[in-house]
Structures are given as C-alpha cells and as structure tokens.
Automatic annotation (TrEMBL):
Organism of this sequence: Bradyrhizobium australiense
Any single biological process term in GO: methylation
Protein's name in the database: Class I SAM-dependent methyltransferase
Lineage, highest ranks first: Bacteria, Pseudomonadati, Pseudomonadota, Alphaproteobacteria, Hyphomicrobiales
Signal peptide start-end: none
Record's keyword annotation contains ATP-binding: no
Length: 420
C-alpha cells in the first residue's frame, strides 16, 4: 500500500546565518515544552505550551539549527533556574581555563576580561582573584544577582552589536572575551558575533565554547537539542560565521565538557595570531565523518530512534521486575529526553537536583517531581537514572552510598546502559 505522508506545514525556515532555505532535517523530536520552564506546584493542574522540536542543517553553510519559534527573552527570563556553580566539575573547569588563558595571553592587572553569559560568577571569580579587571554580561537577573553578591560587576543585558558599542564607549575594549555555552543560545548569531568583534581590543582574543556538533552526533546526544539551543556548531560552520564578522579562528580545542565541546579561539582577521595546526586537524575530522555532506545527517535521524527504543526497552524490563527507578538531575536535556521517550512517573518516581531553585517543582511536560538529593537515600531505589550524563562521574561520587543497598546507575546515552 502506498501512503503519502505530507511534509511539515508552515513556511520553509531560513538559515539564521546565511538565509538559505532549510530543507535538510537533522531530527524531529515531536512536541516538547520549553526546557527550563519548571512547573510550580500551584500550576500542576494547568496546561503548558508545547512546541515542535525540530533541527535542520543548512546545506550551504552547514550550520545546524532549530526552527525559530520562541524569542530569547521568553526563554531566558529573570527567574532562570540554571546556576553554573552547582557543579563542582564545572568550577574546576572554569579555574583551569582562567589559569590557562592568563598564562598564555599574559593577562594581568592592566587587562580587561569580559564574560558574556557570566551566569552566577562561576568563572570571573577566578579572574578577579588574579587582579584582572572583570565585567560580566548576563541577561537573567536571578543568576546575575548571585554574581553581584560575590563582588563581580554584572550587567543584566542581552549581548549584540548595540550593547557592544555601549561597552566600547565606556572603555571596555577587551583583552579577553569569554563566551561559554552561549553562542548556541542566541537566535541572531550574526549580531552576537559582530558584537564580539566590536568589543574585542585590537590584539584581544575571544574564546567561545559550545557543544561540538561532531560529538553530539557521534554519541547520539539528541537530548541536548531543545528550544533554548538555537544552533549547533561545527568548525566548518564556525569559520564561515566568524569570517563574516571580520574574525578569524586561529586555534581550536576539543574538550570533554558537556559531553564533548569545541572551544574556538578567535581574533580580528588582520591580527597577528598564528594559526594552530589543530584548525586543520579538526576540519579533517569533521569532513571525514561527513559533516560537509547530506548523507550523515539523514542516517543520524534513524539512529536516534534506536537510542530511544533501547532506553524504553531497558526501563520496561526493569519495571516488569518490580524495580524502583528515580532520576538524578533536572537539566534541560532531561526535558527533551523524557518527553521524547514518553518517560514519566510510570517509570521514574522522582528526580533530585542540588539546585534549590528547582526543588519542589516539576519537570515540564512529564511532571516528574524534583526533590533534594537526600530523597534518594531515604527511598533507597534499585536504580538511579543519571539525566546530566555529561557529569556522571561526579554524580556517581556524590551518590556512592547507593551501592550499600545494591543500587546501580542507568546512563541513557549514547546507548542505555546499567553501570555500578
């Protein structure tokens, strides 16, 4: 029987970088709520909005991206619940970064360090300790307030050309600009990168760290796709985006943070920074995998469906054995994973999180309650599903007591596995 399935309705989306029609679909994850819209108890019986969660790849510039559906101001509100300092491994990463950058680029008391999306001061605290003049730019008041309490000057603004010009006029031409895990969060990527160029001093360096599209695909990390992430970066796409703004990628590093990230080192196009051989090496890796071709994206769509089936088969098997399962963590990626896989309280009794701002609320969509970490030791479950799998070793250390009653861990991606 021949069945004709209609194409998705609506206007063909355009690439947010080059304006090309987006016809190559990376993945469709169904309908999903906004990832960080945690549900208050008073709103438990109220409906919440769900939006199509789809990602496309531009066949012209190779930027992977979601369809524009929500404004950044609707996502990153004053009460944003993600506080970077709650992860000890991320604090270690931030300290190592500051030590490395200050040594490599000779930063000192006469230097200016600006961080875009500075969150709760998790990183700039280490630059201030070195006597470097620092400024944080953070659009969410809740986390900016935490930074100010530590004495870190923090402006509550969205960053782009206009605000970069304001800062430049105030004398904030930067020797170092840091933008960790923010480039993926901006809908107008060209405006953001142009703002970086405008704020960067003549001999300054900017580093921008984002999840690497190559690793995301290799490790089936589909749950890192959510409405809050507008773009997914490769070096192939990144070089074109930075070049359009008058910036040059002179070095890259591949990191294990957030499950696999790429750190771009950029300077003004005419600056004298020599190009590292790592640029050519990473480009070669991306092309060898096929990021400059269509076929790899089409095949990945089917592999994600298999990852979903693996997780569901494992959870169904355990529940049929009357095993108890709880979650650890309430990250944004959990909202995509659980809603796409249809995993609610029928599988996971509750989840826990160290962030007090999330405790007592519910995960969007699936409405799984979020409790303090101590709840795991009270419930003594058979299994703990690690939702922020990118810090699974840190979580295993924090939760090592579960082994005393025979508890084990479940890691959902790249393939659902049980670990001790």
């Amino acid at each position: 029987m021949n069945i004709s399935i209609p194409a998705n309705p609506g206007v063909t989306p355009k690439c947010r970088h080059c304006g090309h029609d987006l016809t190559l679909k990376l993945i469709s994850l169904g309908l999903s709520p906004v990832a960080n819209d945690y549900v208050e108890p008073a709103d438990y019986m109220k409906a919440e909005p769900f939006y199509p969660l789809e990602a496309f790849v531009c066949s012209e510039c190779r930027l992977a991206q979601t369809r524009d559906l929500l404004l950044a101001s609707d996502i990153f509100r004053a009460d944003y619940a993600y506080f970077s300092s709650h992860s000890s491994s991320w604090l270690d990463h931030a300290k190592t970064y500051v030590d490395y950058m200050s040594a490599r680029f000779g930063l000192g008391a006469d230097s200016r360090h600006v961080e875009i999306a500075s969150n709760d001061g998790y990183l700039l605290r280490y630059s201030i300790a070195k006597g470097i003049k620092c400024l944080g730019i953070e659009p969410c008041e809740s986390v900016a307030l935490a930074a100010r309490k530590m004495g870190i000057e923090t402006r509550t603004e969205f960053f782009g050309r206009e605000y970069a010009q304001t800062l430049r006029s105030e004398g904030w031409a930067a020797d170092l600009i840091t933008a960790n895990n923010v480039l993926a969060h901006v809908p107008d990527i060209n405006d953001f990168v142009a703002g970086v160029r405008m704020l960067l001093g003549p001999n300054g360096v900017a580093t921008l760290e984002v999840q690497h599209l190559l690793t995301l695909m290799q490790r089936h990390q589909f749950d890192t796709i959510y409405h809050e992430h507008f773009s997914y970066l490769s070096l192939i796409a990144g070089q074109r985006i930075f070049a359009k703004a008058g910036l040059r990628v002179f070095d890259v590093e591949l990191l294990e943070t957030h499950g696999g990230s790429i750190r771009f080192f950029v300077c003004h196009s005419e600056a004298s920074q020599p190009e590292s051989p790592r640029v050519a090496e990473v480009l070669a890796k991306e092309r060898a995998y096929g990021l400059d071709q269509d076929d790899v994206y089409i095949a990945w769509n089917e592999s994600v469906k298999e990852t979903k089936r693996d997780l569901l088969e494992l959870l169904v098997s355990l529940k049929r054995q009357s095993k108890t399962i709880v979650g650890y963590g309430a990250p944004a990626k959990a909202v995509t994973l659980l809603n796409y896989c249809g995993v609610g309280v029928d599988f996971v009794d509750f989840t826990v999180d160290r962030a007090a701002s999330k405790q007592g609320r519910y995960l969007p969509g699936v409405r799984i309650p979020i409790l303090p970490p101590e709840a795991i030791f009270e419930a003594k479950p058979d299994y703990v599903l690690i939702l922020p799998w990118n810090i699974k070793q840190e979580i295993k250390t924090q939760m090592e007591e579960i082994r005393s009653w025979g508890g084990r861990f479940i890691v959902p991606v790249p393939k659902a596995t049980i670990e001790s």
